[in-house]
Design brief:
eight-stranded antiparallel sheet, alpha+beta, single chain, 3 helices, 23% helix, 157 residues
Length: 157
């Protein structure tokens, strides 16, 4: 059995997009769009995925790259302000072992004729089963996929 522990961390990723705040918000709120960049971007087989984008709504998915290690994401939306912000809480599970619990904020800010995204995650990594660098890298890749979804490449802030 793994030793029980918790490690707290947080990180922020900022990107500027040429897309409007409305276009960026739609990439999060429209189920088909979110599925393209958030679920299918890495090419892993999808065992299940659901998306109920509303305050109190849930998003969840079960995925595996190799058929042996199965990840489960369980998200609840805490606050949504159209075209401005999205706040959610989520847990990640690996093979039925909870590996983290997080609060994530997507701040969508007009920036000239485009949009600045500020993604902040506050996370508790559980029992040494996940690491900050893995989570940050995963979100860097997801934000890159988001950039493609809105028709561009992301430039660092």
């Amino acid at each position: 059995m793994t030793n029980r522990s918790v490690e707290h961390a947080s990180f922020t990723i900022e990107r500027r997009f040429k897309a409007t705040p409305e276009q960026v918000f739609r990439a999060f709120s429209v189920p088909a769009a979110k599925e393209r960049w958030f679920v299918k971007a890495d090419g892993w087989p999808i065992a299940e995925y659901s998306h109920d984008f509303r305050v109190g709504g849930r998003e969840g998915g079960r995925f595996s790259q190799d058929g042996k290690t199965i990840y489960y994401n369980d998200t609840v939306y805490l606050d949504i302000v159209e075209n401005i912000r999205i706040i959610s809480a989520y847990t990640m599970t690996e093979n039925d072992r909870k590996i983290s619990a997080s609060v994530a904020t997507v701040d969508i800010r007009p920036d000239g004729d485009g949009t600045r995204i500020v993604f902040t995650e506050q996370v508790a990594f559980l029992d040494g089963l996940d690491k900050l660098e893995y989570r940050r890298q995963g979100w860097e890749e997801l934000i890159g996929a988001l950039a493609k979804e809105v028709g561009e490449t992301a430039a660092a802030a």
